[in-house]
Hints:
This protein is α/β, with parallel strands linked by helices. The chain folds into three domains: 1-152, Leucine-rich repeat, LRR (right-handed beta-alpha superhelix); 195-277, Phosphorylase Kinase, domain 1; 284-427, Transferase(Phosphotransferase) domain 1 (Transferase(Phosphotransferase), domain 1, Orthogonal Bundle), CATH 1.10.510.10. The chain has helices spanning 3-8, 241-251, 308-327, 369-386, 395-404, 415-423; strands spanning 17-19, 40-42, 63-65, 86-88, 108-110, 131-133, 154-156, 177-179, 195-198, 202-210, 214-221, 224-231, 260-265, 273-277, 284-285, 330-331, 340-342, 348-350, 357-358. An eight-stranded parallel beta sheet has the order 1-2-3-4-5-6-7-8. A six-stranded mixed beta sheet has the order 9-13-14-12-11-10, covered by helices on one side. The chain has a three-stranded antiparallel beta sheet with strand order 15-17-18. Strand 13 (260-265) and strand 14 form a beta hairpin. The chain is globular and about 60 Å long. The N and C termini lie far apart (59 Å).
Amino acid sequence: MDTLSQLRAGKLAGVRRLDLCDGLTEFPREIFDLADSLEILNLSGNRLSSLPDDLPRLARLRILFCSQNEFRHVPPVLGECGNLSMLAFKSNAIESVAEGALPPSLRWLILTDNRIPRLPASIGNCRPLQKLMLAGNRLEALPDEMAACENLELIRLAANRFRSLPGWLWKLPRLSWFAFAGNPVAGRSRDAGGETIDWHELELEGKLGEGASGVIHGARWRQQPVAVKLFKGAMTSDGLPECEMDACLAAGSHLNLIRVLGRITGHPGSAAGLVMTRIDGGFTSLAEPPSFETCTRDVYSEGMQLSPERLLRMARGLASAAAELHAKGIMHGDLYGHNVLWHPEGDCLLGDFGAATFHPENGAIPAGALEQLEVRAFGCLLEELADRCSGAVPAGLRRLQVQCLAASPAERPRFAEILAQLQTSNNDVTD
């Protein structure tokens, strides 16, 4: 019996999560029978265009997914749902978000891949808001009322129509992960480098992994083992595949970056793709992406431990990679543990440039603002790694962590300073 049939037969009493993907054109009224328990409702992949006016009867509802439907506006009734902390309306045809349609309780809002030209001023009332996904819309400005959202840590604005960005963005005390490639305000690659690699030169092998934006395959190219990333579509949660490819190629070679060999041409399905060096099997993902509960912070395996020596080695490697990127005018935009491959000996590689953006060259953004924003992301990562240290964390490293997390972005060090401090940390621990 499928889930919808079970719901209508009254067999789902007490469930906390309900997933319905059944070509629905109307909201099933039987969902209200679950009002005493339902916390997560997933209605993605249907044909819905509205929600019932009595939706607030689902008083325990915290998370609502309505992606890949036919909504043309964010239903105003959502503003009355006092416990909603996460809303997802990705890939609809949304053209408007009315004043008051966003509940003030929101922590995580996903409106990626729609047609939204403006946001309501009332979004400034969403004070708990930490994560805001707006890539692939028609936005030209953000309401000044958003300056009150001081808990914002991650914002995706890629592939919109911004010619400038508001000054209050660079003063937000917690903003750490930011993407705005594919806008007129964004910088462009001066020399992406790399080469083009014909699809027919590749011998595809097994699938190595999959992320939100693409699928990684093992392959052979000119007799050498490589990894091939094929993008799933024209828009990702972070932005445009072509922007990611440009940033990857412009990043060049660095000991702590996954090296990109070139971009693919001639794919039979016209898919965009990259060819990268294949990483030794001893490397694994440092962390898993954030969960519903953690929102902006990664999830680490319970038993993970790092010696002080390995902690310091990883911190140096990641700081060195970030310093190199910003010296080349590139902001990674997603400096997270789940985008780092690590080896138990302490070697690490930063990858996934889906949120990367080139620094503008026309003074549209204050000098150093993007780097100081990303330094906070490094501080968060440093904190997470230090919390998993099996021995005494070097005092200098803890001091550095505090500096990187300073509430005032102007008080944070640059990556070159961070690297210099880490390289002289042998007073605290010997690598």
